[in-house]
Amino acid sequence: MNSSRRSFIxxxxxxxxGSTVLSRSLFAAASIQHITGIQLYTVRDDMKKDPLATLxxxxxxxxxxxxxxxxxxxKFYGYSATEFKKILEGHGMxxxxxxxxxxxxxxxxxxxxxxxxxxxxxxxxATVGQQFVISPSFDESRRKTFDDIKRYMDVFxxxxxxxxxxxxxxxxxxxxxxxxxxxxxxxxYDIILQYTDPSLVVQQLDMGNLYGTGANAYEIVxxxxxxxxxxxxxxxxxxxxxxxxxxxxxxxxxxxxxxxKAIIDLGKKTGGTLHFIIEQESYQGRTPLExxxxxxxxxxxxGY
Length: 304
Hints:
Elements: H1 3-17, H2 24-29, E1 35-39, H3 44-49, H4 51-61, E2 65-68, E3 71-72, E4 75-76, H5 81-90, E5 94-99, E6 107-108, E7 113-114, H6 116-128, E8 132-136, H7 146-164, E9 169-173, H8 177-180, E10 182-183, E11 186-187, H9 188-195, E12 201-206, H10 217-223, E13 230-233, E14 235-238, E15 248-251, H11 260-271, E16 275-278, H12 288-301
Parallel strand pairs: 1-2, 1-16, 2-5, 5-8, 8-9, 9-12, 12-13, 13-16
Antiparallel strand pairs: 3-4, 6-7, 10-11, 14-15
Helix pairs in contact: 4-12, 5-6, 7-9, 10-11
C-alpha cells in the first residue's frame, strides 16, 4: 500500500470514526450517490466466456456501474484489483460494490480476529474502488441457535469496522432462508436487523429472493426506514421450480408480480436506498444481454 493511499484511508477513517448513526453526512463523506447498476451474475456465463466483450456490451447499453459476483484467489473475473479497475475505467465504468461470502475461513474463532483471506478481500475491494463489501449469505453453522447468530452479528459489526478503516462499509445481502428460518420466535432476518449496527453494516435487500417466502418487501422497507442502502431490483413470475426452489423466477422488470417499482420508489423515499442494482437470473428464452438491455430501459422509464 503506497503512502498516498494509506494517508487517504487514514483520513477517511478519521472522518467516519465519529459517526454512530445512519446519517446523510456519512454518505456524503463517502461520495455515495443514487446509482443504477447491474449485478454481473445476471450475465455470469458471458463474463465467464469473455469478460471484456461483456463489459463492452453493457457499457454500450448505458451501464456505468457494475457489481461483481466473482472474486477468486484475489482476482475479479481473472484480473487483479488494479487490472480490473483499469478495465472498468476504460469502459467508463465503476464497481462500487461486490459480493464475496464472508465464510468460515475468514474469521478465526480461537484468536477472535479476521484471517488474512478476509483482510485481502477488503483491501482488494478498496483498490478496485468499492464503497460496499457485501456478503451474500453466511454459513449454516453460524445460525444453529439464537446465541450463534447473535454472536456472529458481532462479527458482522467487526467487519464493518474493518471496512470502515479502508473508507468502505460492510453489507449483507439476503436470500430466502432469512425469512423461512426462525430462532426464539424471530425470523433470522429480524435478528440480523436487530443485532447489526446500521452505521457499520449496510443491508442490501433482494426483493426477488424473498418473494416466494410470503415476505412483503414493501412492508419490510416501510417498517425499517433508512436501513436499505442498496437493493437488488428484480421482478418475478411463477415457475415450475423457481430459482430459490420457491416457484418463482426473475424476469424482465415491470412484467412480473413483484411490485418492483413501488418498492424501489419507497426505498428511495424512506428506505435510504442509494444503489439500485438490477439482477435477473432467468431469461424466458431471451439472452442475458438482451434482458439486461431491456431492464435498463425500464429503469430509465421509471426515472432511475
